[in-house]
Model the fold of this input.
Amino acid sequence: MAEQAGLRVGMPLAKAHALVPDILALPADPAADAAALNRLSLWALQHYAPIVAPDPPDGLVIDTTGADHLHGGEERMLTGLVNRLGASGIFARAAVADTWGAAHAAARFLAAPVCVIAPGETGRIVASLPIPGLRIPPETVTGLHVLGFATIGEVLAVPRAPLVLRFGAGLGRRLDQMQGTISEPVDPLRDPERVSVRKVFGEPIGAAETIARYTSGLVGDLCRALEKRGLGARRLDLIFHRVDNSLQAIRVGTARAVRDEKRLARLLCDRIETIDPGFGIEIMELTATLAEPLVLHQAVSSLIEEEQADIASLVDVIANRIGARRLYRLAPVESDVPERSIHRIAPLAPDDGATWPGRWPRPARLLARPEPIDVMALMPDHPPAFFTWRGVRRRVQRADGPERIFGEWWKRDAELSAVRDYFQVEDAEGERFWLFRSGEEQHIINGAGRWFLHGIFA
Amino acid sequence: MSAFAASAVVADLRDRIRQFDGRAARDRAVLPFGVPEIDERLPGGGLALASLHEVCGGGNDAVEGAAAMLFAAGIAARTKGQVLWCLTRPDLFAPALAQAGLAPGRVIYVEAGDEKSLLLCFEEGLRHGGLGAVVAEVARLSMTASRRLQLAAEAGGTLGLALRRFRHRKEAAAFDQPTAAVTRWRVSVRPSQPLPVPGIGRAQWLLELTRCRAGVAAEFDVEATDGEGCIAFSSRLADRSPAALSRSRGATG
Done:
């Protein structure tokens, strides 16, 4: 809207008034902007990765190393992030790259609205980006433009010394940081509200057993701190500061609020193998990024009813290892169409006892999509006498059906007259299959529908 | 008298060996099939609860694993508590499990990306001890891996079912390789008995106990898992009891 009227960021107010006479101008409030950016960083810290920092004036930097697989890969993570921000009225662009500098430039000049730069591709891709992507003062940008530089690649191609002599060491440092030749640690955002404990070592540590021992100690401290506030942890971040000034992090989540030292230590120690201690670790910092009030329940006495074993700890261990999305229960949906009759719910969701209607037998294996088969049927509305599936011709000995399933016209218009007639058939060897004939209702009556194989019984 | 004394000595020695193995009394608990002909062939009168068992389909079912899955589901349904079901290929149709007696509220599925993480989840589930049974659809199961699983099952006191599902029918020969599983079952489908009316009766299986620690191999003709997870001993139509007949009619719907 504003861009269509010809307004640009950084334009003098008088000029804007001339373009849009009834413009609503508000004084800039950098402090409030910074505070809002801080709040946004905290939100990202809770949802995405342990190392998050605001990148003022208008950005966030997230170290997603080892966190993307929990969100279904880098591309899906970025799309999800941009969509969630969009839903709350923030237009955002996001990029993933090897270095902070490259991601900064790509998010601002390449992302539409997301961009993933594959590892090792950074140098080739950032070369074509414009100079303002370098995070350098505006006067340096102007100076470079005056000298005739348009892209980062052109700046990289000329000798460094004259440039540094003219514009200072800042430019050279930014160029190196973008290429990853010098490291640029992200100073992670900390929230004084959150429960956090840290341990500083006189001598750097590196052995996995040592890390595990101190992790258990930190978890103990954290649990005592949580207990004072009556909280339980839902998400823990363990950040390792290495001697070479870079950070490594472990993030674990739990399905319910937990304050059990042993369980939390187990979850964290499981992931220690993903940490590269380099030349040693100086500081370990453990934060309960997400904490919830922990309500203690009275345990059911085994005299009254049989106690149910608590499997939340198992769910946590597996979910942190392979991703929480891969662990689920299947619950019924009220739909007659087989592929729509199940949906996934959380593994610890309360059991409402619902199940599928058991009137008709259902196959043990359901093919991802029905596979077309060649059939020979004697009568239009009878099960086939022979069918050929995956090149094997089978003679039907016994059959049961049809079970007619109508399309769900309230979902799509095309399903208004769609019909499937399901048959359970058994071949000469005793193998049982679930076949159906599909088509519009009048076609089926004429025997004109197409045949598919949808599932395999025992 | 001397025979009695000898058997008492042997029983005592067996107990001591078990104690050396570190196996508690609860580890000797079994899950009977409820079919006397099968239970009497198994040491202890049923499937040992705190141990690993292997199930594989015969013929084409070695790849599809449909009958083997229902057999495993029936066993898991008769245990108490939640069941962890580890899989790599998401083609399992949950309503069939419900029809084998395993209610949807009892099963937690784990979709592992590869065999390695599947075995990790399998072992983790067995070791936890709070589950009724853990079922895992695995293709390859080495001696080392199966021994780890067996030890985990003993430690957690949980029934482990390795559902062997091969990628090709040729690979199914690997089912003859030794593993540390206590029993090994092969489930093959058989043509069902013709009914007096059009329709399909209860499925018939040839259940082969191909390996059984401290027992002998055997073969059984059984009727497939019913709504309570029980299999039944198959009988010819002529000498079938009226109850069995009505049950098979019921299965046709």
In short: The two ends of chain B are 57 Å apart (CA to CA). The CA atoms of residues 238 and 253 of chain B lie 22 Å apart. The longest strand of chain B covers residues 204-212. Chain B has one domain: 25-252.
